[in-house]
Amino acid sequence: MTLQEVEDIFNRSLRFCFSKKKLCFVFPVLLVCGVLIIFCRAVSISASAWVVMSLSFMPVFLCTGILLAAGVLLIRMYYHEIKGMKVHFRKLLSHSLQSLIGASYLALPLILSYLLLWTLMGVFLLLKGIPGIGDVISVLLAFGPFILVCASLVLSFASLLVLFFVTPYVALKNGVHLRIAEEIIAKMRASAFMNIFLLMIGIAPLLICIGFLTLAAVMTDVHYLSATAPLGVSLEWFFIMVPFTLILTPFVIFFFNFATECYGLLQKKNKNSTSAVKVDKTEDEFCTAQS
Questions:
Q1: What sign for the dihedral angle of Cα 248, 251, 257, 263?
Q2: Inter-residue contact 266 to 191 (CB < 8 Å)
Q3: 208 pLDDT higher than 90
Q4: What is the rounded average pLDDT of the residues 126-153?
Q5: Does 207 score more than 90 pLDDT?
């Protein structure tokens, strides 16, 4: 694998970011995710610290399930585009329903793991509330909440890894099976440096865009927004969220396009192995079936 190959897949991923069909598909998906985040944030206003923590992380994992399903269809559309085949959205959607549902279920382990962490955090908060000795216990056990928050952040990062590495695998393998985690981890271990390098390239434009838009939203909130009631605050966030997601849409498309290219590039690198030959054959069968 050379730098020229990485540059080629980057440029091709960027070139196919502005397809009207994909823009019209991804934008409503991001709107749904945005509404979900705004709802959780509005509910957390004046809530307890335990509820605020839950509503800060839970939208990440719920949106991961939504984006997994959307990413499968988006990657299949991209696969047809780079093969020069006409994309029939409705036909592709009907053939992909089972994979979309299966992909969304992959977020369940993340959600259940976070619910366990959230429950444990509640135990620490209960111990802190014990009259008389609660403050002493909270000091002695301060490492516990710290570890739980770190674990929650790790799960959030794991959601990103799932979107980048698992979505192309599910989309191009035409289904979800029980050994998917084992196979993907084995492939990542075989070329850890290259996987991390490609992940950093793929996620950098998305993170830069999110950081830029978040900074603009925060400055708008500080210098312009004035609502104090939960309903007014939620409406202000909603009307900011609409252009926020519109600008973010091409970057999300690029993320999945580049993830697909990286999957193919790594398969090309390992083309002499038996597993790589099987995956290539599966991709060809999928391409023939969907065309």
A1: negative
A2: yes
A3: yes
A4: 86
A5: yes
Ranked by mean pLDDT, which of 216-220, 226-230, 232-236 comes out on top?
216-220
For residue 127, which amino acid is it? Answer: L
Residue 168 token pair: 């192309």
Query: How large is the average pLDDT for residues 42-70?
Result: 87
Task: Determine the Cα–Cα distance for residues 38 and 26; give it in Å rounded to an integer.
Answer: 18
Q: Is 4 exposed, middle or buried (0-12, 13-18, 19+ CB in 10 A)?
A: exposed
**What is 112-151 written as a DSSP string?**
HHHHHHHHHHHHHHHHHTSTTTHHHHHHHTTHHHHHHHHH
Q: What is the mean pLDDT of the chain?
A: 83
Q: Counting beta carbons within 10 angstroms of the beta carbon of residue 91, is it exposed (0 to 12), middle (13 to 18) or buried (19 or more)?
A: exposed
Report how far apart, in Å, the C-alpha atoms of 26 and of each of 1, 31, 78, 182, 219 are: 31, 9, 13, 29, 26
Domain-wise residue ranges, the chain: 3-290
Nearest-5° angle of CA 242, CA 31, CA 84?
Answer: 110
The residue assigned the tokens 């585009």 is 81
H-state helical runs in 180-226: 180-190, 192-223
Looking at residue 136, its amino acid is V
Residues 167-204: pLDDT tens digits?
A: 888 888 756 666 777 777 777 777 788 888 999 999 99
Residue 118: Cβ-neighbour burial (10 angstroms; 0-12, 13-18, 19+)? middle
What does the pLDDT read at residue 205? 93
